[in-house]
Amino acid sequence: MTSKTIHLALYEQIPRFECIEGCSDCCGPVPWSDYELEAAGLNRAPTEREDQVCEFSVKGGCAVYHARPLMCRLYGAVDDLRCPHGRGPLQLLSSERAHDLVRRYKLHTGLM
User: Fold this and answer.
1) Rounded Cα gap, residues 37 and 21, in angstroms
2) Domain residue ranges in the chain
3) Whole-angstrom distance, CA of residue 100 vs CA of residue 109
4) Burial of 83 by CB count in 10 Å (0-12 exposed, 13-18 middle, 19+ buried)?
5) How far lies 16's CA from each of 1, 38, 52, in Å?
6) Dihedral of CA 81/93/90/13: which sign?
7) Predicted local confidence at residue 47, as pLDDT
8) Terminus of the chain with fewer CB atoms < 10 Å: N or C?
9) Is the pTM of this model over 0.85?
10) What are the pLDDT digits (tens) for 39-73?
């Protein structure tokens, strides 16, 4: 399987929902795989800012939302990573299921 196929298969298992437009309260430093960097058109991972806000959080939005990494996709969709504003899918992923997805992500991307 290609890296793209693996990533898309993992992303497909995460329930989708709509964030509050302009909110960036969950935007912080997260790991990026090589595939995710390439998909976002980046040659390096975002630098960690002193304020712990992701450098792609600009003007109340995400500059790379279309290619955001797995951890950004999980936020708000997991029982123990709930949105502080009450947004989220109708059915949250269990913490155990989310941990399994992260384990598989790390295993296939070399981040482990």
Assistant:
1) 24
2) 3-109
3) 14
4) middle
5) 24, 23, 25
6) positive
7) 84
8) N
9) yes
10) 999 998 888 888 888 888 887 788 888 899 999 99
